[in-house]
Design a protein that fits this description.
The protein has 2 domains: 186 residues, no CATH class; 171 residues, no CATH class. By secondary structure, the chain is of the alpha+beta class. InterPro entries: ABC3_permease_C, MacB_PCD, Macrolide_Exporter_MacB. One of its GO terms (cellular component) is plasma membrane.
């Protein structure tokens, strides 16, 4: 004989205050747990979204980032002559030699300096990255000290707004445009004509070459030919994979730190659920004795109390996920460990995070409610009525 489920619902409603407090504790834990996963997911999505499956990136062999890579003009010419590289509408190869440097800019409001990445790009760079779109102003004009900036940079740094001036490379650069990159890491950069950046920093080499493939299947042959060419010392990677690997260390750090905090919080939440369920068992000694007298077996009583604990945890988990989902409207920035530059990204909720958060909440409910449920199921009829 099974105890009706509405018995558990009714008992939670009857003790509304303890239900609210315990569910609130579990909701806080799930909020932190979900936020950590959303933060790591947002970071990964931002950097993965920075690349494209159609593009390959070429850097110096052994260089862990574009900052450490150096490619001379001879290497650039050899790479651009490869037959696997697509041809643009104007008959030119869709390959862009780019330069990456770091500068310090003061933040708006606090004036604290932070690293910002400047990318010297070619006209083909915009063609190969259709997600980059100007939302204000115009593109830079060749030969002039003009830049375009990502929206987070324009909003977060002094002198980076449209029409303002930034000083680097012993020049004053006018911001003539603001661009959006659909949340990709490019939004945290300042873009300028590569030849102007090379002159300003007196840098005779480029950092990387990004090339669009004629077809995705051409990647293997391009990689094989370039990496075995005795005139070159380069590594070839798919652009999306390259940027995804740069996020791996930082995403792992966020997850480990967040999970450490979550574990501490979850211990408190489980103890809270256990206290609630023990109090529930103590207050319903007569009810338990009556159910045993009516013929309900021990396993039914254990199941009813365990279900009540899981129900409590699922309510708290649902509230925690709902609160965490509001973080999707928040944009945060941090230092990218791979480039040491400021990187802006959003919290991103995914179905996998919802499932993981609910599973974690139910695990807390199970662990917190199991011992009180066992105690309830072991109540003897005589002792239960005597206690009342």
């Amino acid at each position: 004989m099974i105890i009706p489920l509405n018995y558990s619902f009714r008992n939670l409603w009857t003790r509304r205050l303890t239900t609210f407090l315990t569910a609130g504790g579990i909701a806080l834990v799930i909020f932190v747990f979900s936020a950590v996963l959303m933060l790591a997911n947002g970071l990964e999505k931002t950097l993965v979204g920075t690349g494209s499956d159609k593009n390959a990136i070429i850097v110096r062999q052994g260089a862990e980032s574009e900052f450490m890579s150096m490619l001379d003009r001879n290497a650039v010419n050899i790479v651009k002559s490869q037959p696997e590289i697509a041809v643009g509408p104007e008959g030119n190869r869709l390959a862009a030699s780019e330069v990456v440097v770091l500068i310090n800019l003061p933040k708006r409001g606090s004036s604290n300096p932070s690293h910002v990445q400047i990318r010297g790009v070619a006209p083909e760079s915009l063609t190969m990255r259709p997600q980059v779109k100007l939302v204000e102003g115009r593109r830079w004009r060749p030969g002039l000290s003009e830049v375009i900036v990502g929206r987070p940079v324009a909003e977060g740094f002094q002198g980076a707004g449209l029409g303002e001036t930034i000083r680097f490379g012993m020049r004053d650069w006018t911001v003539v445009g603001v661009f959006d990159a659909e949340g990709a890491g490019f939004e945290s950069e300042i873009w300028v004509d590569a030849e102007q950046l090379v002159q300003a920093f007196r840098r005779p080499v480029f950092s990387s070459i990004t090339a669009q493939l004629s077809s995705a299947g051409d990647f293997s042959s391009l990689k094989s030919r370039l990496e075995s060419d005795p005139r070159l010392t380069v590594e070839v990677a798919r652009e999306k994979q390259y940027y995804a690997e740069q996020s791996e260390m930082m995403a792992t750090f966020i997850r480990v730190l967040g999970l450490f905090v979550t574990v501490i919080f979850s211990l408190g939440a489980m103890i809270g659920a256990m206290i609630t369920m023990y109090a529930s068992v103590a207050n319903r000694t007569t009810e338990i004795g009556t159910m045993r007298a009516l013929g309900f077996p021990r396993r039914s009583i254990l199941g009813a109390f365990l279900f009540e604990s899981l129900l409590l945890a699922s309510i708290g988990g649902g509230i925690g996920i709902l609160l965490a989902s509001l973080l999707q409207f928040v944009t945060v920035s941090t230092t990218n460990f791979a480039t040491f530059s400021e990187l802006a990204f959003r919290f991103i909720l995914s179905p996998a995070i919802v499932v993981q958060s609910l599973a974690f909440a139910l695990a807390m409910g199970f662990l917190g409610g199991f011992l009180p449920a066992v105690r309830a199921s072991r109540q003897k009829i005589v002792e239960a009525f005597r206690a009342s």
